[in-house]
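Notes from the pairing session

We agreed to fold both candidates in a single pass and log them together. This is the raw record for the first candidate, unedited. Please don't reformat it; downstream parsing expects exactly this layout.

Candidate A
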Amino acid sequence: MIEALPTLTIRSAFRRPTDAQISAFQGIPTGFVVDALLGGGALSSSIQPIGGGRDLHCVAAGPALTADCGAADVLATFASLKFIKPGDVVVSAFAAHTGCAAAGDRLVGMMKNNGAAGFVTDGPVRDYEGIVPVGLPVWCAGLTPASPHMSGPGSVGFPIQIGGQEIETGDMIVADRDGVVTVPFERIDEVIQKLAHISELETSLDAEVAQGLKVPNWVEEYLASDNTVRKD
């Protein structure tokens, strides 16, 4: 016999990065963050800026507030509204279900009213024409007019699986037109330390390309090394 689960479970305490840590990620491209994580952290490419970002400027960086909903259910996401702090990115696991929407314009609007910096889900959303004027950046798995239900079970504040990554409340979320990246809470300072160097390298290479660079030096060196064999 399977024991009935509580309809909703809320974590008693939420961890959160410092203001200085959050500030360090503002304006940082997702690619830089992935490089600082040695190629890790990116959510599945199925999670994209709503509408491809054509009508809504989808850029956000803030602490994750997690909601584990399960397929076709939005109870936990609605419950998360009570716990949003300014700058949070609400991350809702929908079990990658695409048969109905994980949120609509009113839910997204309430997130914005509570100070959220963005919304990420592995399900589709609805009410595109209503979400755009709300102005909250959204990353999702597409659009559908189909409506979800609110029956639970669900949870707020616990680790979730979404887009091939585990995300816990307090992890940093960095998202832009390229997609979404998560930085584990324990690695935030490590990544921040690496970002300045990565930014400097990227800026330098951008300048070289703008000035006409055709082949990087390392490619020339690799072609001339014993790692390359020429055959007829």
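Candidate B (folded immediately after A)
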Amino acid sequence: MTLTDYLPAYRLRLRTDRLELRLPDLDDLVALADEAAAGVHGPDFMPFLVPWTECEPVERGRRTLLHQMGVIAGITPERWMLPLVVLHDGKVIGMQEVGATDFKATREAHTGSWLGLAHHGQGFGTEMRAAVLEFVFTGLGADFALSASFEGNGPSEGVSRKLGYKADGIDHKVLNGVRRQDNRWRLTRADWEANRKHEVAIEGLDAEVLASLGLDGAEA
């Protein structure tokens, strides 16, 4: 038996012109922790609801590694999150999450991501989100994809608008005792197809992977 026999989602590979996305092995997790330790965002804006980056570099890396391990351990057909590492030229540069609850019924997935600071401003954020959008719409048969970004997070909002998302209302969150506006974004299948610019290859999406995400082959 191999890892993929026990956790079929490890067979998945998403490939774009420049990037590969996959579930992380232990070496990938260490590389991801190193990226987190080196910095994920500037000091003047906290983009995350849980301020996990507000600590010393080694602790930031440790939190990253342990969190991703826990997310992988929590994958079930009814509720799943795939914390995919993003590789460029064979090097881990960040992570792209995609997940859903009761996807078989809702046909709705949500995403989140971050990149190491050294890799900002190169179009990777758009390309890696496009990869998981192709996965959920074409691979899994989604009807909608959701995202959110705090007011003032221009790069994240820019990615959403570029890929065809529409504004979907706001929420208010409290971060370190301060109210923050969280802008919701929704992408329909029609808008995805109208704004689809990146070619994405989906590898390893077989019947066992679909079953692990709550689907069978006829439903995707």
